Fold:
Amino acid sequence: MQIRDINEHLLDSYSDDIPSFIKRILAARNVSETRLDLTLSKLLHPKFTDLEKAILLLEDCLINDKKILIVGDFDCDGATASAVAMKSLRMMGCKFVDFLVPNRFEHGYGLSKEIVKLAKEEKEPDLIITVDNGIASNEGVELAKSLDISVIITDHHLPPDDLPKADAIINPNLKDCDFDSKNLAGVGVSFYLFSALRTHLINQNYFEKNNIEVPDLRNLLDLVALGTIADVVKLDQNNRILISEGLKNIRQNNCSPGIKALIEISNRKQAELTAQDIGFSIAPKLNAAGRLSDISIGIKCLMTHDLGSARRFASELESYNKKRRETQDQMQNEALQIVEKFEGDEHFAVCLYEPNWHEGIVGIVAGKIKEKLQCPVAVFAKAQDNLKGSIRSIPSVHIKDLLDLIDQKNPGVIDKFGGHAMAAGLTIKEENFEKFQELFASFIQSHLDNKKPAVELMTDGDLEEYEMSLSNALLLESYAPWGQGFEEPIFKGLFEILEQKIVGEKHLKCSLRLKGGSLVFQSIAFFQNRCSTKFAEIAYKLSINRFRGQKELQLMIEQIQPLEKVK
Structure:
């Protein structure tokens, strides 16, 4: 366990109304006081390359009743981005707008040639808008243009050197884009585009001329929060504003029936919903449909105005999620068995494949194995005539750049790839698996200079017994949302384990007392076996157990290090 360094200059800069307990936490995250303001007025203004081109094209479609087709990604971010685009356009008077989502098993990822052909046959659009995809869809865009279909790409993934020749590209990560935050999720990019369109249409008196009520796009922030949390993007101030305002809407019952139904089936309280509830309970249900079948059911759930229909959709999504968990457990166990056979391997990188694995689950399994081994992990599954893989990486290996390097020096081994610093997807031929496996390991080992980075849990240090209080847990909750880039505080301490028992077959519930202390703290550790010693160094979060209207402090254990001897 490693203690975060504190920025002493920032620590001294905070105003007196911020509690000292919180000051230390903020200073350890290099967060200035001005970045704590999460009001909507602090949202960054839309400054995107091609924004004016996209707006004028959309305005023309609205005025001339042209057909618009939204093509999304098959995950929660893509589903929410699709719903934001659909709802925005309908509120702006669009008469012909529909969506089409690639089936990962038939069409592949993004605006592929296959999905463009299907779009032309079934929808005959004048304009295709991609959401959460498209930045690498050169062939699909070229085909669409040849069919006289205009294309606007909205995406947040890292762009290739050779950009698609779309009519407009809205992506904060374009090299010449002046938007100050590069961390928007796909749904955030979608929201910004239609917010900018709304402003333009107001200035053109479009709503007044067409007798249309000016839409309040703040009512879509529930969807923006859901997609942003689900995609685990960095929580800079801008994303924290979007999430904070979206959660506020949900708690105040200003949200879509689909989100209400998903909250109900997840057994969460809407008035107390947290970002963690969305990340661990709500989003996986939407993602499961895209992993196992078709995310269209998720988009319909988010789009419906009828709570009864939303509940039926949510029930179907939950069925997919149960099936996803079963498939994931099986694949994970098989993957770990394979890894255990790698004798004498320091695991600089792991690359796995089994013919019976499910291509929709490889990303989750790669993430779980990465967490266990703390090295980049690639997991492949059979996908028609090829293998589709998903990679999860560690902070010291920018996986998209590494795949670029492998591809440049070994052309033909990788058919196609794309992604971020920490996650990527790729397609290879089955006969190239062993070659890629070898390259993946050697390039990463070389990149790390043959030294596997030590990965330690970052903590905010020890708390005094009086600081371990319900009031401080509530105080931390008031500074939410926490997440990547604004990590939730984890503390550590030397504890005596007074009682411990396994609950729910795989979770450890125990009573703890700080060494030398007098108070007893109730705690829970998920997927944790009994501790073999009486004392342990424990990393934990201050959490709140809400039950029958009561609130109690509960320590959420993140790590247990048994201690044989205690000084």
Summary: The radius of gyration is 25 Å. The first strand starts at residue 2 and ends at 3. The chain has a mean pLDDT of 94.
